[in-house]
Amino acid sequence: MPTGELRLNAEQYLMNTYTRQPISIVRGRGTKVYDLEGREYIDFVAGIAVTLLGHGHPDLVLAIQKQVQHLIHTSNLYYTEPQVRLAQTLVEHSFAQKVFFCNSGAEANEAAIKLSRKYSCDKYGADRYEIITMKNSFHGRTLATLTATGQEKVQKGFAPLMPGFSYVTFNDLSEVERAMTSKTAAVMLEPIQAEGGVYVADRGYLQGLQELCRERDVLLIFDEVQTGMGRTGTLFCYEQFGMQPDIMTLAKGLGGGVPIGACLATDAVARAFSPGTHASTFGGNPLACAAGSAVLRVLLDGKILEKGRRMGESLAKGLTALKERHRLVKDVRGLGLLQAMELDIDAKTVVADCLARGLLINCTGDHVLRFVPPLIIAEPEISRLLKALEQIFSHRTTATH
Ligand SMILES: *Cc1c(COP(=O)(O)O)cnc(C)c1O
After folding, report:
1. Distance (Å) from CA 142 to ligand 1 centroid
2. Which three-class secondary structure state does DSSP give residue 170?
3. pTM of this prediction?
């Protein structure tokens, strides 16, 4: 179907929930995608930090093909090996001892919210249920997770929201301390506020938070839906802060593109769940888990984590150099291959200019460009991006003078 016709049909048949770029993507290979007209794009979006291994990674494709032949789905009424195997690998490489599988980031956070409430209720009674989250956070679009999300624009029009949430300023330990009451069950945050504009937490803040939470047996929930799975240079982002949470959620990169989410926890916390307390029909299905295990195998066996870390440094260095040359660049921030550039011009127009130059990038908010390429991104591709941005910014400066 030609792109123009596809656009019209999308308008006719799909609910109007997304603003889409005017291309139709039909195929992907490695770090590149191709549109209907055969144009090639370097993919610095990666399905919003999802396709970690790029498109069509042979190990991932093979694992999915093999699993499809054996069994796609059977439900959690029975044991399946792919699910147990993926849980074991996640546990062996994280602070956690137990895993619950679901299908998305929002669902993983729902599980974390329910688990922390149940833990607190079992131990301290039904009045201790409050969860402190951060202003400018993002935790998903279901009712509980949009309530956890500290952004009015996400909540507007969906009242009444879930009771039991309060909000504090990110990176301010004294505010959390003041907000904690005898009703506080958990503190929930992203180690890097990604959708909110890529704000990295301070090391001292996260360590202080862990200490504060431990003192009061308040659970610390890390939403690593975007930062997890090697995105920031280590398998999980918390590893870089010299501390650990009690609960961690994963999704985006976990299946390399196949929908899957996970809520991980320590044994002591996970014990609050028992049969009948939480469930998901598709959760941990053999197809998604086979994909997850393939992604982890590649991340753990190969040099991809290390390469991603190096490419992240290279990208950050290049973006910082652009900041020094162009006054319209206000800030560059991020960790690993989760990088952002804040502009004092409309970021959407830069996204469009990049698209026209064969580069997929993304913006979050009105002024922040976000770069979340696959971890297999290479130096020449980063150079192409930097060169394009240089041209775009130079144009803008001369045009406005
Ligand atoms: C994307 C994201 C979510 C929501 O994930 P979905 O799969 O879209 O439900 C939650 N938390 C963070 C930090 C995210 O980046």
Report:
1. 10
2. coil
3. 0.97
